[in-house]
TrEMBL record:
Official protein name in the record: Signal recognition particle receptor FtsY
Localization (cell): Cell membrane; Cytoplasm
Enzyme Commission number(s) of this protein: 3.6.5.4
Spans traversing the lipid bilayer: none
Keyword entries, A-Z: Cell membrane, Cytoplasm, GTP-binding, Hydrolase, Membrane, Nucleotide-binding, Receptor
Gene: ftsY
Length: 304
């Protein structure tokens, strides 16, 4: 139901206009199928997904009359097929702390999403340490410190302008040494086109692994590299997914700001083109406005 509320705008586009397309007992022909395609495109699901939905409907129903429920059933089936790998859980460490690195462009919702993750894991009774790796912006460290205090998590900060990799190192060490369950490491926002800054993410990633190995031999970290994407960024979110997944070895997506956008369909091509599972969705500005992503729930919410 959280999903449903969040996807309301996307659903409104799909539902109202899909009903319009089938009314008056039209036969499924090319014009009909192009209307389906155009409608799907408006949700930002991308050309490949929209084409597949159209083609699947064409295969099943060409030259026939269809009901609204036929269209919805077919579209759901197609999206489920596309997003098969999209329902992954967080990859928790088998033993010791789970180290989660968080990356993304400025303004995507990184800080808020970290607060939501902390809230989620604290609610589960886990102990959490944060690494304030955005040493570039003093305000980012301050903001994260406020959340850490409010949510009762340890936080490791460095001096302004200090090496973010050293903060990541210290946070990783603290996670193992202080027996935390979860360690979340922030990084400064950057654009996927800034290649030196993209390389830096690779370096931070390697240093986290080194730190984990120093404290606990044979560990592999980080366990997750979550890319936070702004769902309202539409197709630009796709180019971010491409740039970051290559440079930072991303393992999953947090799709923030899914509330209030008609472009919720963007989760589909992210999954289809980059094989990156959407792990969480952001549904508002408060720490509890967050949900685990689930393909079936998503598909049902999208079309119902
Ligand atoms: P950062 O620069 O990536 O750290 O972005 P912030 O976490 O500071 O978020 C930028 C803005 O987006 C803030 O005003 C947040 O309150 C807002 N925001 C973040 N996530 C969500 C979400 O899921 N839904 C809504 N509606 N707003 C969000």
């Amino acid at each position: 139901s959280k999903f449903k509320t969040a996807l309301k705008k996307t659903v409104n586009v799909l539902n109202t206009d899909l009903r319009d397309i089938v009314k008056e007992g039209r036969l499924v022909d090319d014009a009909f199928l192009e209307e389906i395609f155009a409608l799907m495109i408006r949700t930002d699901m991308g050309v490949a997904s929209a084409s597949k939905i159209r083609d699947d409907i064409g295969k099943k129903f060409r030259a026939r009359k269809v009901e609204f429920s036929d269209l919805v059933g077919s579209a759901k089936e197609t999206v489920r097929e596309i997003m098969q790998q999209g329902s992954a859980d967080v990859n928790f460490a088998e033993s010791g702390p789970t180290i989660i690195m968080v990356v993304g462009v400025n303004g995507a919702g990184k800080t808020t999403s970290i607060a939501k993750l902390v809230y989620r894991y604290k609610e589960m009774g886990k102990s959490v340490v944060l690494g304030a790796g955005d040493t570039f912006r003093a305000a980012a460290v301050e903001q994260l410190t406020v959340w850490a205090n409010r949510l009762n998590a340890e936080i490791i900060t460095g001096k302004s302008g200090s090496d973010p990799a050293s903060v990541a190192w210290q946070a990783t060490e603290a996670a193992y040494n202080n027996d935390h369950d979860i360690c979340i490491i922030d990084t400064a926002g950057r654009l996927q086109t800034q290649s030196n800054l993209m390389d830096e993410l690779g370096r931070i990633n390697r240093l986290i692994n080194k730190a984990a190995n120093k404290v606990s031999e044979g560990s592999t970290a980080p366990h997750e590299v979550l890319l936070v994407l702004d769902a309202t960024a539409g197709q630009n979110a796709l180019s971010q997914a491409k740039g970051f997944s290559e440079a930072a070895n991303c393992t999953g997506i947090v799709l923030a700001k899914l509330d209030g956008t008609a472009k919720g369909g963007v989760a589909i091509p992210i999954c289809q083109e980059f094989g990156l599972p959407v792990k969480f969705i952001g549904l508002g500005e408060t720490p509890d406005a967050f949900a685990k992503f689930d393909v079936d729930t998503f598909v049902d919410a999208l079309f119902d």
